[in-house]
Amino acid sequence: MEPEQCHACHQPIGRPRKISNGLYLSIIVGNSIDLKMTTADRFLFKRDYEKFKLRVTLLNMVLLIVNLVFPSRPLDLLCHFLMVWYYCTLTIRESILRLNGSQMHWWWVAHHYFATAICAVAVTWQDDEDYRAFRLQFLLFALYICICQQLQYKYQSGCLRRLHSLGHGDSMDLTLEGFDMWMFRGLTFLLPILVFAYLGEIYNAYTLYSMWTRGTTSWHVPTLGVLFFIVGNGNLFMVVKIAIQKLGGDPRIRKQSLQTKFREYNGIDKLK
């Protein structure tokens, strides 16, 4: 039996290798292409992922400021659609990174799926009385999130570079829209900024719940309220859990850890 040939290049098609890209990536790109990369390719892909986050959030921040100064329904839709595309793209890129060894916690990945849903609901929300009542709060919150993401990228990327220079951390560690164990090595000042953002998510949920209980609303109001409630509480739970894990345990181990970090910081200062 002759092997099957490609109709375009007239070359025999080899026996397909068994490839598993995971459920999500298999749905999007299939299992015909192996998305596992070499070490060099992983580094380049990770670097492009970080640049993508920085540039898109900066663009959205500019659009949000313009939209707050010059209110416009088309600009509202543009901002919402941009964030739907942004978070959808992040979920795909993060799935590829996790396939290639990234240890990004599952919650911060799930957080982006919820964020995609929030922005998608916002895109479909018609310009009714409820939307106009919530619009300013939502746009200000989105702007604050963009500012948080810029700060996180700036300081987390610098911290990761210094840790890698000292031989600590994983080469596939990523900047996050949250808080992780390695950030206790000098980034605890970001914690209040993030907690305020997470409390803002819960406050958004409370505002939407109040709107829903006052009278007849569209389905967008309770749906967004539930999504914000899940995301806000999930983010707060993760931060508290990480803080307890890091600060808990045997005091002697904590003392030894602090001494180790002191020596590391001396090394970091010398690298600067």
TrEMBL record:
Name-wise, this protein is Transmembrane protein 120A
Q: Which domain of life is it from?
A: Eukaryota
Q: InterPro entries this protein is in?
A: TMEM120A/B
Tell me the classification of the organism that encodes this protein.
Eukaryota, Metazoa, Ecdysozoa, Nematoda, Chromadorea
Keyword Cell membrane tagged: no
Query: What keywords sit in the KW lines?
Result: Membrane, Transmembrane, Transmembrane helix
In which organism is this protein found? Mesorhabditis spiculigera
Membrane topology term: Multi-pass membrane protein
Protein localization: Membrane
Q: Where are the transmembrane segments?
A: 52-69, 104-124, 182-199, 219-244
An example Gene Ontology cellular component term from the record? membrane
Which family does this protein fall into? Belongs to the TMEM120 family.
